[in-house]
Inverse folding.
């Protein structure tokens, strides 16, 4: 087995400008930084200036990121309602994946996640992540906590305590991670169905590898290698432990 | 940058949120040291996001929307403020040597320890090994710190189950490698090893076990009945 593999750097297609929704853009009155960044897609990696916000290029300017900024800055309930109509059905689907939770608990999870989005919108940084990543992370954490509550864990830790702090991340690596997220998303559709299925079990249904193996009636090793293969096809960067070189 | 990192399998379960609580805490602590692993986890979360976005939406009625809108003015729970633990003054007076630095200790760990290393109830196992159990609330895994004196050894042992180890300070060798702060080692039941701390510094490790260690050497075998797993 080869020791190390690192994904090749794919050329990035830049920002999908048609993601921009004029409804949301209309709310930008003071600084129209959303617009500015769409135009400026080539590889500048300057950080914020003092006078104007010259965010790194390639920053996502999708509707949902802009809604989150509006919620944080203006407590905009209209933006929140749009966000709700888009994400609440996804959160509910996530809650119900693999019958992980009952319908009642699923509704409870939707409320909990959506409320948290409102309360924590100020912590959302559109330079660091897409809105969907941010929402997904909250949903995953809340679901993990709900599982633990239902199993009567007595723990001082909430799932969000496990998130690493990346506030000090440099603009260049922020740009890179946003690009790799875009790349992963665009490649997802090309995976063979058995690999998509196993990834969905692990991520959406929240099954451990062992649980997935039991459900699919496959050896644990097969499940592990199928998941690994899928993840590698998506060019997730992973360097094997150097010791095994 | 640590040389020994968790396998991709472990990072995937971590990113998907399915790794058991105690193990996830250990991986989180490792990520504090390891940019490579952190980057992998970030991309693995992007995989989750892509799957999340492609779910078939489940209809959510206006009743739920209105209920949430009605709750928007509630005070958020205090726990939303990021934890600002007492990062200062965290140091451990070791038995007879100097002070063990705590600055680099991952914040999640500091939070679990709820205070100074020196406040923890250390339990002597051998002349050169002490341990203390930390409560995580995970009913299936024991989460503990090991303090190995400089040059000291943990007797030969194997594992009924799995053992995750993260070096927090100093380091050790076990015949297979040399491990330094931030290195992550995962052993399963087949592996027998006898870690030995470096000669020049005490070693502090975090260990997550799902079954008690079993000493294999004749000299310490008598202790096995006392090494009960203390999960929780």
């Amino acid at each position: 087995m080869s020791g190390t593999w690192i994904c090749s750097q794919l050329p990035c297609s830049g920002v999908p400008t048609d993601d921009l929704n004029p409804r949301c853009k209309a709310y930008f009155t003071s600084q129209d930084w959303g617009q500015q960044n769409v135009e400026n897609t080539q590889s500048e990696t300057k950080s914020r200036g003092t006078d104007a916000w010259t965010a790194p290029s390639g920053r996502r300017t999708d509707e949902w990121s802009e809604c989150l900024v509006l919620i944080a800055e203006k407590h905009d309930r209209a933006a929140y309602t749009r966000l709700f109509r888009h994400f609440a059905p996804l959160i509910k689907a996530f809650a119900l994946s693999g019958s992980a939770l009952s319908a009642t608990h699923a509704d409870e999870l939707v409320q909990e996640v959506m409320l948290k989005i409102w309360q924590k919108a100020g912590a959302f940084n559109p330079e660091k992540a897409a809105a969907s990543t941010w929402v997904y992370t909250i949903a995953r954490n809340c679901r993990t906590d709900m599982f633990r509550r239902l199993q009567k864990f007595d723990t001082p830790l909430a799932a969000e305590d496990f998130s690493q702090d990346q506030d000090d991340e440099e603009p260049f690596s922020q740009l890179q991670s946003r690009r790799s997220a875009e790349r992963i998303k665009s490649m997802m559709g090309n995976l063979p169905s058995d690999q998509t299925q196993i990834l969905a079990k692990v991520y959406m249904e929240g099954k451990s590898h062992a649980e997935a193996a039991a459900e699919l009636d496959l050896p644990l090793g097969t499940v592990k290698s199928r998941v690994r293969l899928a993840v590698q096809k998506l060019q997730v960067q992973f360097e094997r432990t150097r010791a095994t070189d | 940058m640590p040389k020994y990192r968790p396998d991709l399998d472990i990072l995937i379960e971590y990113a998907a949120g399915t790794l058991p609580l105690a193990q996830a805490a250990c991986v989180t602590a490792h990520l504090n040291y390891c940019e490579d692993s952190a980057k992998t986890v970030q991309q693995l979360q992007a995989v989750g996001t892509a799957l999340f976005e492609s779910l078939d939406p489940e209809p959510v009625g206006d009743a739920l929307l209105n209920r949430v809108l009605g709750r928007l003015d509630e005070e958020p729970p205090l726990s939303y403020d990021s934890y600002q633990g007492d990062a200062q003054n965290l140091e451990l007076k070791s038995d007879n040597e100097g002070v063990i630095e705590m600055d680099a200790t991952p914040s999640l760990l500091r939070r679990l320890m709820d205070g100074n290393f020196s406040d923890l109830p250390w339990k002597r196992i051998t002349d050169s090994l002490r341990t203390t159990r930390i409560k995580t609330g995970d009913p299936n895994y024991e989460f503990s710190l090991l303090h190995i004196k400089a040059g000291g050894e943990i007797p030969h042992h194997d594992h009924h189950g799995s053992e995750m180890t993260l070096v927090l300070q100093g380091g050790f060798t076990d015949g297979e490698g040399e491990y330094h702060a931030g290195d992550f080692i995962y052993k399963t039941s087949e592996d027998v090893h006898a870690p030995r701390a470096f000669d020049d510094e005490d070693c502090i490790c975090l260990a997550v076990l799902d079954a008690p260690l079993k000493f294999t050497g004749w000299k310490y075998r008598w202790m096995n009945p006392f090494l009960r797993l203390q999960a929780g």
Residues 77-96 of chain A form the longest helix (20 residues). Chain A has ten helices and no strands. The radius of gyration of chain A is 20 Å.
